[in-house]
Automatic annotation (TrEMBL):
This is Multidrug effflux MFS transporter. The lineage of its organism: Bacteria, Pseudomonadati, Pseudomonadota, Alphaproteobacteria, Hyphomicrobiales. Pfam families: MFS_1. The keyword Membrane applies. Keywords: Cell membrane, Membrane, Transmembrane, Transmembrane helix. InterPro entries: MFS, MFS_dom, MFS_Efflux_Transporters, MFS_trans_sf. Residues 22-407 form the Major facilitator superfamily (MFS) profile domain. It is a multi-pass membrane protein. It is found in: Cell membrane. It comes from Microvirga terrae.
C-alpha cells in the first residue's frame, strides 16, 4: 500500500498526508527559495535608487549573498536531520530564515540588506536538503523521479507568478513590503508543515552526530561514481540557471529589451515551459527511465545552447525578443527534463545516508552553480552573448561529465529499472 494512503507513521499515531497534499506541501516549502529570489527581481531598480548604487551589476550581489550561505549551510542541516529528524531541523531552518527576512525588511543600508539576505539563505538551506531527503525517505528510483517531477511542476508555478506579485507589491508600497509578504507566507507554510507532515526518517537510518560519521558519509558519496558524477552535472546545469536569474532583470526589463512592466510576463512564460517539462518528465520517466530521458534532455540542451549563441552573435548580441525568448524557453524546457532526473540518479544509491548525502550534494551543486552563475552574470555587457556562451560552455562540460560517469555511454535506449534497493551502496558498520 502507498505510504500516503493515510496509514500510520512510524510512531503509530500520526497519519501521513495524501500524495496530493504531500506534493503540494513539499512544493510550497521549496517555493520559499524561489520567492526569495524571483519576487525580488522587480525591486532591483528601487533598491538601487534607495541606496545609491552606481553599478547595476552590483545588484546581482542580492542573489549571490543569498546563494553562498544557502550552499554552505546545507552541509550542516543534512547531518543534523540524520540525528534529530527532518521535522525539527526544518523548523530550525525556517526560524533562521524568518530572522533574516526581518533584518532585510528593516535594513537601512545596502550592506545590512546583504547581511539579511545571507541569513535568509543560511536558513532556507534546510529546505533544499530536507525536501529531497524527505522524498528519498519515502520513494526510490523512478518513483522518486516521478514524485520529484510532480513536485517541481507545482513548484514552478511560483517563479511564474513571483515577479508579477513583486511588481504588484511595489505598486502598493516599497520593496520592503516584498520581504514582509514573504515572511507571512513562510509562517503559514511552517505551521502547515508542523501540523501535517510526520517524521519520515527511518529509525534504522538515524545516526548519531559525529564528524567521523559525516566524513564517512561524504566519502561514500564522493566515491560513488554515479552520485558524484550526476551531482557535478546538476552543479553545472545550475550554473546556467543562476546566471539567467542574475541577468534576467537586466536582459528583459532594462538594458537589452527594455520591457519595463512587461518583464514579469516574459519571465513567467519562460517558467511555464519549465513547468511543462516537469509535467512531461513525470509522465514519461517511469516508461523511459531517468537516464534515457535526462541524456536526451542534456544533448538537446547543448545543441540548443549552440543555436542560442549563434543567433546572439548573428544579431550583435541583441536578437529579436520573440526569437531569443523562444530559443531560451526551449532550453529551459530541456533543462527541466535533465536536472530532476540527475538529482534522483545521484541520490538513488544513498538511502542509508540520505540526509547527509542530500546535504553534501545540495551544498556542492548549489555552491558550484552559484559561483558559475555569478561569474557569467557579472560578465553581462548589455547583450545576451555572455549568458548564451555560458549556457553552451556549461552544457558541453556537463555532457563530458556524464560521459565520464557512464564510461563513455549515453542511454538513448530504454534501460532496466533504476534505483531499487538492490542498487543501494552498502554502508560499513561503524
Amino acid at each position: 500500500m502507498s505510504p500516503f494512503a493515510g496509514g500510520p507513521s512510524q510512531s503509530g499515531h500520526t497519519r501521513f498526508p495524501s500524495l496530493h497534499e504531500f506534493v503540494l506541501l513539499i512544493a510550497l516549502v521549496m517555493s520559499l527559495g524561489s520567492l526569495s529570489i524571483d519576487n525580488l527581481l522587480p525591486a532591483f531598480g528601487p533598491i538601487q535608487s534607495d541606496f545609491g548604487i552606481a553599478d547595476p551589476n552590483d545588484l546581482q550581489m542580492l542573489i549571490t549573498a543569498y546563494m553562498v550561505p544557502f550552499a554552505v549551510m546545507q552541509t550542516v542541516y543534512g547531518p543534523v536531520s540524520d540525528t534529530i529528524g527532518r521535522r525539527p531541523t526544518l523548523m530550525i531552518g525556517l526560524a533562521v530564515y524568518l530572522m533574516g527576512g526581518f533584518i532585510a525588511a528593516t535594513a537601512m543600508s545596502f550592506d545590512m540588506l546583504l547581511i539579511g539576505r545571507a541569513v535568509q539563505g543560511a536558513g532556507l538551506a534546510a529546505t533544499r536538503v530536507l525536501t529531497v531527503a524527505i522524498i528519498r525517505d519515502r520513494f526510490a528510483g523512478r518513483e522518486m523521479a516521478r514524485v520529484l517531477s510532480i513536485t517541481m511542476m507545482v513548484f514552478i508555478i511560483v517563479p511564474m507568478l513571483a515577479p508579477a506579485s513583486g511588481s504588484l507589491l511595489l505598486l502598493l508600497g516599497t520593496w520592503r513590503m516584498i520581504f514582509a509578504t514573504i515572511l507571512g507566507f513562510a509562517v503559514l507554510v511552517a505551521v502547515w508543515f508542523s501540523i501535517r507532515m510526520p517524521e519520515t526518517l527511518h529509525p534504522e537510518y538515524r545516526r548519531p552526530f559525529s564528524f567521523d560519521q559525516i566524513a564517512s558519509a561524504v566519502k561514500v558519496t564522493v566515491s560513488t561514481r554515479v552520485s558524484i558524477g550526476y551531482a557535478t552535472g546538476v552543479a553545472l546545469m545550475m550554473g546556467c540557471l543562476m546566471a539567467y536569474i542574475g541577468s534576467a532583470q537586466q536582459i528583459f526589463e532594462t538594458e537589452v529589451y527594455g520591457l519595463g512592466a512587461l518583464f514579469p510576463l516574459v519571465f513567467g512564460c519562460i517558467a511555464a515551459f519549465m513547468g511543462a517539462a516537469s509535467f512531461t518528465n513525470a509522465r514519461l520517466v517511469q516508461r523511459l527511465g531517468m537516464r534515457r530521458l535526462s541524456h536526451i534532455g542534456l544533448c538537446g540542451f547543448t545543441l540548443v545552447a549552440a543555436v542560442q549563441l549563434g543567433v546572439a552573435l548573428l544579431y550583435g548580441g541583441r536578437p529579436p525578443l520573440l526569437l531569443f525568448a523562444a530559443i531560451f524557453a526551449l532550453n529551459q524546457f530541456l533543462y527541466s527534463l535533465t536536472v530532476p532526473n540527475f538529482n534522483s540518479i545521484a541520490m538513488a544509491p544513498l538511502a542509508a545516508i540520505a540526509g547527509t548525502a542530500s546535504s553534501f550534494i545540495g551544498s556542492y551543486t548549489t555552491l558550484v552553480g552559484a559561483l558559475f552563475g555569478f561569474f557569467i552574470g557579472r560578465s553581462f555587457n548589455g547583450t545576451v552573448v555572455p549568458l548564451s556562451a555560458g549556457y553552451l560552455c556549461l552544457g558541453v562540460a556537463c555532457l563530458a561529465v556524464v560521459l565520464w560517469t557512464e564510461r563513455g555511454q549515453l542511454s538513448l535506449r530504454s534501460e532496466p529499472d533504476e534505483g531499487g534497493d538492490e542498487q543501494a551502496v552498502p554502508i560499513a558498520a561503524e
